[in-house]
Amino acid sequence: MKLLLLAMSCFVLTACIAPSEMMVGPQGNTVYCNAHGFGYVGAPLAHRAFSNCVEDHKAAGFLPIEEAGVVGIQLSKDVLVSVVTPSSPAASAGVMVGDKLVKINGQPVIDNAAALTMLFGKVGTPVSFTINRDGTDIPISVTRGSRVQEDK
Question: pTM of the predicted model, to two decimals?
Fold first, then answer.
């Protein structure tokens, strides 16, 4: 009975808050911003902590996970494509395992970390890159797809 009264008072008499958001960075690292607050002091403090976490990570280049787009490739040593995700933008554009990324949006690719950062962006935004396959440079343009696969 006491638990029920506590739960009812949380929603009726005072304020409760428990916001959360999963974010992803250019290197694929994730962070989970969340906070919990109860009452007239705790709820605003929790909201502020949560908002600061989200804004700080956005300033560092993170995106909410549902907004982060993918090209559909994984890279191995020396920016070589090691995996092409089936039905991804890269697969649709003809990227193959063993292709080497040489430019992204006109900028030379110096290493895997730089490549991941340059490929990172919001769902639905374009990215162009040049691959080298068997000594031939091939320009490719794709639109970043969703990280969430729709059920079909």
Answer: 0.74
